[in-house]
Design goal:
2 helices; 9 strands; Lipocalin-like domain-containing protein; signal
């Protein structure tokens, strides 16, 4: 009986050890630069946007909850952000570049931002953009929570 117990314990130990050695699969191969464009194209509803400002280890975050009319739309070489600000519909048009792995580069005539795809599922996506303003100690981080 003791021998059987040791064998069962040994098998469980071996399985646990082998499971720990298994290589983790890339959770989102669609985010490779060649597939990123296809993976994100279409209209994504804005669930919420977190706007964070950090200065000298002190951060303030504002939250925007999306409405039914708010969306981020990605096309082959452009993108559109539509949302309400102070009861006024805003539409920002971007030129889009999908050539870097996991990053969507959006730019307008006066601004360029790298939106890192933090998470991507079949019906949800999280984009994060970090940038500095005129004050070099200030770091702005915008996080977009999107749904199809």
């Amino acid at each position: 009986m003791k021998k059987a117990t040791y064998i069962v314990a040994g098998v469980f130990f071996a399985l646990a050890t082998l499971a720990g050695c298994a290589e983790a699969e890339d959770p989102s191969p669609l985010l490779e630069s060649g597939n990123l464009k296809a993976a994100v194209q279409g209209k994504w509803a804005i669930k919420k946007i977190d706007n964070q400002l950090c200065r000298e280890y002190s951060c303030n975050t504002n939250y925007y909850v999306g409405t039914a009319q708010d969306y981020f739309e990605f096309r082959a070489d452009s993108a559109f952000l539509v949302y309400k600000e102070n009861s006024v519909q805003q539409k920002i048009c971007f030129k889009a570049d999908y050539s870097r792995k996991g990053v969507i580069k959006l730019n307008t005539a006066s601004w360029v931002g790298d939106f890192v795809v933090e998470d991507k599922g079949p019906s949800n996506m999280v984009l994060k953009n970090e940038f500095k303003g005129r004050d070099p100690a200030a770091v702005f981080t915008d996080t977009y929570y999107l749904a199809k």
